[in-house]
Structures are given as C-alpha cells and as structure tokens.
Amino acid sequence: MAVAIFQLLVMGKHPYTGRFNGPDLTLGAAIAQNRFAFSIARRDATRTTPPPGSVLLSDLSPPIAADFETAFGLTPTTRPNPGAWVDLLQGLETDLRRCATVSTHYFPSAAGGCIWCRLASQSGVEMFPLGLGAVAMPMAGPFDLDRIWAAIQAIRLPRPEEVLPIWSGDLGPSNAALTQANSNGYDRLVFGGLAIVGAIFGFANVPAAALLWSAIGLFGLFWMFNSPKVDTTPLRNAYLDADSRVLLASQAYLQRIGLKEMFVLRAELEDWVTQYRKVEGDLVQSLMKLKSTREARQRTDFLDRFLISRATIPGIGPAKTAMLASFNIETAADITASSVRAVPGFGEALTGKMLAWRQSHETKFRYNPSPAPSDIQAENTVRSASATKQIDLQNKIRTGLATLQAAVPRCLSAKSTPDQSLMQALADRAKAQRDCATSMVAVPPPAVITIDLPKKASIQPTGAPPQTIPKYASTSASTRVSGAASCPNCGASMVRRTAHKGKRAGRQFWGCSRYPSCKGTRS
C-alpha cells in the first residue's frame, strides 16, 4: 500500500529507484538493501538520490514525509496502517494550494511553491496540461502606458539631505579641562613672546647687558615651545564615534520614513514598464516558435502513444520498465540515447534496443501541415499567458504609481518630527567637531550616507527605455551623487549624450532624460 500511495503522489516513480553512489544496482537489490532513494533521514546510509525531475519528500507535508520514512525504513513493524494513510491523504487534500500561474496546478503548502511548475521547467513536460476545450482568454482593460510613464517620470524623489535633519542648536559650554589647557598654552605663547620682544629691545638699547638679554630671549623661546602637549587622540576618537552613530541613525531614519523603499519602488516601476513593452514582442516570438516546432510536436504526440510497459523489448522486463519510468522514460517519445544511458543498469546494448524500438515506430510517422486541435490549444494557451502577464503588469504599474505619488509628500512631512536619537548623534558630533577645532585637531569629513538600489533587470524595451535612477549619497551638510546625475532644472534623472556640434563636439555630457521638454545639462 505504501508503494502504491508513494507512486500516486510522485507521478509513478518507485521509492527504491534512484542514483546509487556506487556500482549500478537492480531494483531488487535496492529493495533488499533498504536503499529508499527519497529518504532524507537516512540519506547518508542509503547513498542514493532521487531521479532527476522528481517530487521530493520535502515537497510533501511533514507528517506524510515522516510516514514514508517509516514505511520504507528498517523496522517493518512500525509501518503505518491503512487508517493512518487515509487520515494523511485527507489532510493533504485540505492542505493543497492552487498555483497562481497555471490553474490546473495544485501543490502542498509545505513545498513553498508550485512543484509542478518546477518539474515542468526541469523536464519540459507539463504534468497537468489545460484541457482541449476553449481557453478562457483574459482581457486587458484600457491602459495608456505613455501617459503613465510620463507620470512616473514627473515624480521627483527627495534627496536624502532634503529629509535628514540638520543640527543647529546650542552646543553648550566647552569642556573645562580642554579650555584650561588651551588657555595655558595661549598664556605661555604670550609670555614667551613678550620675553623675546624685551630681549630684542634690550639688545638694541643696552648692548652692554647682552648676556642678560640672551638669557631672557632663550627663556622666552623655551617657554613658548616647551609647553606640555595635549593628547588629542580622545578628541579624534570621540568625533569618529559620533560620526559613526550619525551614519547608523541616519540610515535607520531614512529606512523608517520609507525613502529607500521609494527608490526601490521607482526602480521596480521602471522594470515593470520595460517588461510591459516587451509583452507583445514576446508573444509574436512564442507564436513563431510554436509554428516552427509544429512537426516536432506532432512527432512527439505520435510517439507518446506507444507505452514501454505494453511493448515487448528484449531484455526489458517489469523491473527495468519501473526503473525507466522513475527516470521519466515511459513512452517512445521519451527515449533518447543520453536519457537511457543515464538510467542505472542500462548500458550500450540495452540503449541500442530501446532506440531501435523507438525507430520502428518513428518510421510510421507522417507530418500533417494543417493545424491540429492541439496546435490551436497550444496557441490559445500562449495567448492566454501573455494576456495574463499583461494584466498583472498593468495592475502592478497602476498600484506602484499611486503608492509612489502618495509616499513623496508623506516622506517630506516627516522632517517636521525628526528622530531624537539622530538629533542626539548630530549634537554629539557637532560638539566633538568643535572640540577638535579648538585644539587644532584635523578630522576626516563626515561619513557619506548612501541609498543603494537593486540591480536593474537587463531587459531591453521595444520602445523608449526608462532611464536609470541615480544613486544618491548625502551627508548632513552636502550631497554627493554617484552614478547618473540629476537634472539641475527639474531634478529628473540624466543620461550620457555626445555633443554633435559646437566647440564641445564629440565630447560626452549629462543631458536631462526629459529632453526636449527640459534642456538641463551637466558637464
């Protein structure tokens, strides 16, 4: 019973057929050695992996996976009884989810995604194709892409410094010890300078007392340049620590008010628009591919009628047939030299017999250039998938545009209620910077605050390409733009262009992406 239920759930694959990490094993030997090919708990012991393109135990719910481990484990007395299997299958039925891509796909929620779409992409075989009846063709509503794209381009996203607060409060009194140390140093400079001036004056007026004036001058020099040194390391470290806290607090603040999400959404909108422009072209290419592969599909459909399980092939018995089925070889259409050789136990001799059996049926195939019902069904399926993608992109673009338009004023209004932790970090950095300046300690410039955008998809649109969003970098006092610049007139993104006339002919410059409506440039 466990074998039958297992084959029902994993599309006919036998639980003991797989790739053994060792000499080829027959199905009987694998069963005798308890090498459950799909086992997760005993994977190291079985040294066997499932055939390619298989439903895995991890795709099933944990209770069913655990009972299969028990059923094909080392203790026969603990195998589940029929009542337990009934309960497990009923639980699996209630746990199924419908695929959002293919309406005929239902999969266990434990899989995390559609297992049938995954297997179809691996093997090229659709396990649950749509019926041959009329395909419900989704209809896309009116959608003015140019108007929506213009609305997206018109949205000017705020720069980081436009929403980050700037410290402008009272820094309070300076550190008393630091002030006293600086004052003492100043006093020594003044006193030493006066002594040197007095010595020079004495030399000029009473040269006979040259020895005295020399002593006074040397004392002044010693007093000026032998002042106790102030350790500036704590001052520099205090500034660096405060600057680091400003960076972290600024990034957290920009994340909290949604500025980064706005740039990410803008990038996603551009990507969706690019994909939308490609839908029609992709549909044309898919239909052309269907037409060019019509003969191959007819041949596959013809060969698919001849089942290996019903054939008489020398050397291929029930065990070999089960092994072939576990490796997705069930009909004449599945037989190729490489696929048969990949099955354990099939060498050149058996592979040659399988190919000869396929060839005996393939010689009877006759191509019909007229479209068959399956051809019409395939074309309708492609058109339906294209329309579904178009509708999905329309909904994403409309929703994303509305979200972005509402987010900009909300983000700008957040500056009126600045974050207290950020303001405290800014105050601490300003104080540390003042103390360093007082002691003439050089400090590095403030840390640069960046907004990193995800990499854009490398899809080339059929129409005008959306422009790249600049990556903005800001400090509390200045902004640095890395990547593409922004237009000084309207704030839109800019693109590299080449001058064709004038004294800069042949040189590149930054031009506004909204040209000719905006003629902003940067060198």
From TrEMBL:
GO CC terms in record: chromosome
GO biological process: DNA topological change
Keyword Isomerase in record: yes
Domain DNA topoisomerase type IA zn finger: 486-522
This protein's record includes keyword Transmembrane helix: yes
GO molecular function: DNA binding; DNA topoisomerase activity
One Pfam family in the UniProt entry: Zn_ribbon_Top1
Protein name, as recorded: Topoisomerase DNA-binding C4 zinc finger domain protein
Chain ranges passing through the membrane: 194-225
Residues in the signal sequence: none
UniProt keyword list: DNA-binding, Isomerase, Membrane, Transmembrane, Transmembrane helix
Gene3D superfamilies for the chain: Bacterial Topoisomerase I, domain 1
Source species of the chain: Pseudomonas lactis
